[in-house]
Amino acid sequence: MYINGISREQLYLFENKLDDMISEDNPVRFIDAYVDKLDLLKLGFTNPGTNGGKGRPPYNPSMMLKIYMYGYLNRIRSSRKLEAECGRNTELIWLTCRLAPDFKTIADFRKDNGEGIKQIFREFLKLCNKLGLLSFRCIAVDGTKERAQNHLDNIYNKDSIDQINTRIHERIEKYIEELELNDRAEEAEYEFLSKNLKEKLSKLKKKEDKIDIINQMFAENPELKTYFAGDSDSRYMKDNNRINAGYNCQTAVDEKNNLIIAQDVTNESNDLHQINSMMNKVNEVKEELEIENQTIVVADAGYFEEHEIVEAVKNSKFDIYISHPRDSQAQKKKEQDKEDKIPAKGFRKDDFKYDKEKDVFVCPAGKVLIKEGNGYIDKRTGTRKFKYTCRECDECENRSLCTNDKSGRSIKVTEFFCEINEFREKCNSDLGKKLLTKRKEIVEHPFGTIKHSWGYRYFMQKGKDKVSAEFSFIAFIYNLKRVLNIVEFDKLMEAI
């Protein structure tokens, strides 16, 4: 014997209220109450109006926002899936009061309200601050790569475009020949094949037209090296040794509860030029929330760019700590040793002491390295570099441990050497080491949740502006999830 359900033919005399189907502490009740308190027009959401009294009235923007909040909170981002859930998901049925917008309406809302969606992130931080969830004592900055809506097959460069064009022409000629043979055969069994070939031929000719347009773009823009056809704002990004078209997503995370307080999206493939931009965004949030305490900012070695650091230290209101790229990194050590012509077990740059008053370096053997001229501009970085050379290497007993260069040992430093040296000493202090070790604990929780737990490894939108809006919304949803886990539901509802 088994437990049996009721008959599907059974009639109900009384039906439960829709509200009875949702528990009192269900997160959808917070979504509903929170959105109803927002001034969506003030935040930048579009007002669809009433269609001038013609046709069916539009859906309320607040309801559309509720749908997206619920969807992203429950790992449902597809507009088609959200449409389906609106018709069968009890929580969404309650949230929308049984309304079920079609997928195009849902998709258009996200597409048309990028600015408003961005502001939701900042608006929610006000509630987080009101609840005492932010400290602004220590902020960790980090970046991660997210895939764009751009398949690698839709990426073209000058070297590959001619090859692609040649292959297309060869396939077109092949299909035309096959069609001619089929036409001469005039047999019924070839009718299906001919139709199939014509469809393939039509697709190839469309691709040929597309390639011709891209070829023309390369011809008109000599500086253009690569064209990303699917999402023209995306760029090559390396993540976990995989190269994809994508974006570099930046976050600044507060240490108290691992909440994201600032975020940004860039198509630069590394983090070298992002620290100042992120600190400006953090400062904007501090001013908006009227936070006045001193804030420490920590970041990993990916942000260690001398000009950026000097500018940040000079202009920033923050106490900054950034890890230095370690000499133990095999490839970097190999490249540097090759440039300076250092033996495998020789003296490194850090073994030389700098005398600031005399503006010279002193080697481990006590020999002096003197600056040559006024330096030169590094073409790769745009910064001025100076070369210090030793004129006493020939008679030095440690020469074999110092250099293989016939002209003697030399050291190259940038114009920011002194400032960077002081900065490194600060970062290598006991406090600096403690803070930089703590960085991982702070910043890696959001990315672990977003990418690994939720599976949000790619964007649904195309174009940098729309991608920025989507990532802002993802950051907001992450914060919302954290708050729902941290704060008692009754207290959260009272704080709205």
Describe it for me?
The chain is of the alpha+beta class and 496 residues long. The protein has four domains: 18-112, no CATH class; 132-149 and 245-324 and 433-486, Ribonuclease H-like superfamily/Ribonuclease H (Nucleotidyltransferase, domain 5); 152-228; 330-424, no CATH class. 47% of the residues lie in helices and 16% in strands. It has 16 helices and 13 strands. The strands form three sheets. Strands 1, 4, 5, 6, 7 and 8 form a six-stranded mixed beta sheet that branches. Strands 9-10-11-12-13 form a five-stranded antiparallel beta sheet, with no helix packed on it. Strands 2-3 form a two-stranded antiparallel ribbon. Strand 9 (353-355) and strand 10 form a beta hairpin. The two termini are 51 Å apart. Mean pLDDT is 84; it is low at 327-331.
Mean pLDDT across the residues is: 84
The CATH topology annotation of the largest domain reads as Nucleotidyltransferase, domain 5
How many helix segments?
16
Shape summary: flat
Secondary-structure content class? alpha+beta
- Proportion of strand residues: 15-25%
Radius of gyration: 31 Å
CATH class of the largest domain: Alpha Beta
What's the number of structural domains?
A: 4
> pLDDT below 50 for ≥5 consecutive residues: which ranges?
327-331
Tell me the CATH superfamily of the largest domain.
Ribonuclease H-like superfamily/Ribonuclease H
CATH architecture of the largest domain: 2-Layer Sandwich
Approximate helicity band: 40-55%
How many individual β-strands?
Answer: 13
* Main beta sheet: 6 strands, mixed
Span of the ends, CA to CA: 51 Å
Reading the helices and strands in chain order gives HHHHHHHEEHHEEEEHEHEHEEEEEHHHH
